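Work Package 3 (structural annotation) set out to generate three-dimensional models for the target panel prioritized at the project kickoff. During this period the team completed the workflow that converts sequence records into discrete structure tokens, so that structures can be stored uniformly alongside our sequence database. As a representative example, we reproduce one entry of 283 residues exactly as it appears in the project archive.
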Amino acid sequence: MPARGSALARRLLAQPRAVLGLALLAALFLLAFAGPQLARWDWQQTDFTALREPPSAEHWFGTTASGRDVFALTLRGMQKSLLIGLSVAVLSTGLAALVGMVAGYAGGWADRVLMWAADLLLVLPAFLVLAVLDPALGSAWPLLVLVLAAFMWMVTARMVRQTTISLKEREFVLAARCMGVSPARVLARHVLPNLGSLLIIDGTLHVSVAVIAESGLSYFGFGVHPPDSSLGTVIAEGAAAATTFPWLFGFAAGLLVLLVLAVNLVGDGLRDALDPAGGGGVR
């Protein structure tokens, strides 16, 4: 496993897009979590002497109409968006792996029930459901993570199911089953490792999808609620005055674009590094 991991790392670092994406993602994480330590103002502080002031030495990204520091607000928003995006990606990918493997390996009624649930969630309008549940969610962003994850696993689960159906007919899986190895152990030791490339790529891309979804929901008032902040709430608050006071909108929107770009570049690099045609596939 260490040798396989080091080989994957070498192939990943040989991809220029992946290197650029990793560097950009690392810089954004550093800015989000270390930047507030360098800021002159806390995201909750208000400067009543500077209302809608442009960027300056005192307020690096300017101030809002209420005198809050846009730099501090934007970094707080990026922290929350990153946490939500990563949490949703981990949960949705884990759920997709579990459901897909169980459905593909067990077959029969378990397969039919699980895939019926996946099809049902696929046809439900996720935005409408989230809008209806929003009053119940309140300001508890972990509940938002759970709801977002609940609508992001179905397509991947179907892919995992098809791969599991193929894998369970392979010699090494048949041998384990003939030796009396339990289904849970077969899935954990023989099936899951062979799904690694699919799940890694899927989890990476789900980060950007979750960040965009959260930002869009927050923009329309259905995601993170004030007084807390996310990139979506910062963009929503500054959108109305974007042409007159562009600093209220531009910095958060630019960081959102860079974040999604970085994650997609890493995802593309992982896909190329794990591509069986390039020697990165599982054997």
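The radius of gyration is 22 Å.
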